[in-house]
Amino acid sequence: MQELIGDIRYAVRLLMRNPLFTAAAVLTLALGIGLNAAVFSVVHGMLFRPIPGVENEAELVQIYRQWPGNLRYGSNSIPHYQSVRDGSAVFTDVAAFTIIPATVSGGDRPEMALGMMVSANYFRTLGATTQLGRAFVPEEAVGPGAHSVVVLSDAAWQGRFGGDPDILGRAVDINGHSYTIVGVAERGFRGTMPVLEPEFFAPLMMQAELQPNSGNRLEARGSNFLQSFARLAPGATLEQARQNMTALTLQLREEFPNNYADSEILLVPQTEAGLSPQFRSAQVGLSTVVMVVVGILLLIACVNVANLFFARARERRQEMGVRLSLGAGRARIVRQLLTESVVFSVVAGGLGIALAQVAIGVANGIQLPAPFPIVFDFALDRPVLLFAVAVSLGTGIVFGLAPALQASKAETVSALKGAAAANRSRSYFSSGLVVAQMALSLLLLISSGMFLQNLRSATQIEKGFDSDNLLMASVDPSLLGYDRGRSEVFFETLTERVASLPGVNSVGLGQAVPLGLSSQQNGLSVPGYEPREGELMSVDFNVVDEGYFGAMGVELLAGRTFDERDDASGAPVIIVNEVMAQRFWPGESPLGKVVSTTGAEREVIGVVESGKYRTLGEEPLPYMYFAHGQIFRHDMTVHVRTQGDPGALTGALRDEVLALDPEMAVYSVQTMDSYLGLALMPARIAGVTLGAFGLLGLLLAAVGIYGVMAYSVAQRRREIGIRVALGADRGSVLGMVVRQGMVLAGIGVVIGLGGAFGASKFVTSLLYGGQAITPATFLGVPFALSLVAFLATYLPARRAARLDPMKVLRSD
């Protein structure tokens, strides 16, 4: 122990004795450690961190309805949720919730807020508590009526009500109805989707009042809109729960054959589901790529620091020679040098944690282009700190071990005389550093280049509509109690007034906006079409008016679009996209064909171009459009095509809505380009982040290669001096040194390319369109890195060519 304390003290003195060396080593290493800690904080927060305010998360399972085809994680209806709750023998509690937009009044203007409609046992099932008042009671689960109560989130309590301690019993207006505040949730509790910040929690039995445009869903078994979860009973296993759900499915299939003929109940452990199991694999894949990239960046930093320690070990050869001559064993010297490197890494780790804290703060402040605020609360919690400590200690050993082993092999006599060591292993180690620098840097840069190239490609993907000069705003008159007649008049008047605004080319209404966070499907049957085995006869759809296709810039390929004939009294009609036409009527014109859907036989009157509806990377999907006059929806988005900057009309669009009804909330007012930022968010985050890491890696590689080559030239000063003294000209010396460096760089490029080709197979699955290998990336990056290596080699080579042979030989 005394020896260890002495080694630590000696290492600290070395830190203070060589401030330039210390600063270079510590800053290089701190950057790598800090980036790894910050990225791990994000990955841990998104994939592994327990949900705030939830008790024993490992006991929770998410419940989905599964149909054949691509609908694996389907939602639940209220009657289905109740059947699972009442028919389960392995759950202590089964709860349900859904996220709803709502108009909250009482301020200067009505605001659209995010809320959650939850079953009465929601808080109890999660083991969540309130900081004020109470959660819901069983009486608030039996039916609608006198249960107009809400529990506020801490954010709403603090932000909307100023943290008033006397808030209980006060009323808040939601959708034009008064709700009594009975409780305030614990700070940080946001339910099972912690990235969203709901303002309130309301009883599920108030569904008809909170979702007036959707009708009464309390008894509609086929109206699936809920997310459900359950808590396993003590001693119950997931396998037992799955067997119980299989038996329950068979029972429900006998009672309700139309609703359960093809569906199953799917259970997913909460710890494996994350925010949504549908996106879990993509999150894990992208997180793996980013962690590998920052890991490579850390390795490059370690190689640089190892080079610095290797250079310092050369300067300390006399010291090592004295120690060896006085009887110190090799193990003792290795321990001393490793202690020094670990002390360096601990100091760098402390600085790295500080850098990570700054980076996490920046990440938490990012505002994503989403309709409602998305909350990030990444933190340097215990797992992240333990990770940072482990990385710091591990890097200290990684970059310190090789120089320590090399330094402990010093030849005692030559070291005492200060002679240069003719040790071939040192040359191999120095050459290995150059190769490692090039290979790791190339792998990092190519990975970054693939994502950057894909980001550029993603912005150029044919979306099936024109996103330029397009402004959107969403309204829902039913939230204020409008019936269909009033809503129809409202939308008709609104579109007329907006169309008359200066700079507006066209206006249209659509219920769904493509490339959003959700999609809607409807089943259908096509006369004469025989579904393949396992084929799901369900197609995504939108409800639009006659101006929608013109405002969106969707091309009509055949037939006509909707017009005034397509109202409630007209013949049921439908418009399909090209993919749907080719799927159900290959080689034929779909015009005049009949599709049975939404309870009616609908004639195909038009075919429009196909586009992207769920994600930019999706395969071409069939899609259908219903006329707003025939399938009415209250929640619609106004699409405004402008002549110039669409953002300039934002205020005018809001004013037109408020002029028709001062209590009407307008939400999601944004340009289409801004909206598409959400669809491009994964590509942008990956591209920008990895691009920044790639540039940083390039800088570290340049510094590292320069340092290694400068050290190599310093080792060969005597050899170069002799060559010049014997008549070698400066050009030949310059060429010899550059050639040596470029050969090593070339080996590193070959190794790095091999690793990059292997990595591209994995990265391909994460890219839009699945294209990873492009000439621009796999040819341009090696060329650019080779140019950097040439410059990093040329500078020490030029210095070597200018050596005065007499001074070199005299110094030796």
Can you walk me through this structure?
The chain contains 26 helices and 21 strands. By secondary structure, the protein is an alpha+beta fold. A 6-stranded mixed β-barrel has the order 2-3-8-5-7-6. Strand 6 (171-174) and strand 7 form a beta hairpin. The protein is elongated, with a radius of gyration of 33 Å.
Short recap of the structure:
This protein has 812 residues and is α+β, with helices and mostly antiparallel strands. It is 50% helix and 16% strand.
Strand order of the largest sheet: 2-3-8-5-7-6
> Main β-sheet: number of strands, strand sense, barrel status?
6 strands, mixed, barrel
Radius of gyration: 33 Å
What's the end-to-end separation, in Å?
Answer: 41 Å
Bin the strand percentage. 15-25%
The overall average pLDDT, rounded, is: 83
**Low-confidence spans: pLDDT under 50, at least 5 residues?**
418-422
> Based on CA inertia axes, which overall geometry fits?
elongated
Give the helix tally. Answer: 26
DSSP summary, beta strand count: 21
What is the helix content? Answer: 40-55%
- Return the structural class: alpha+beta
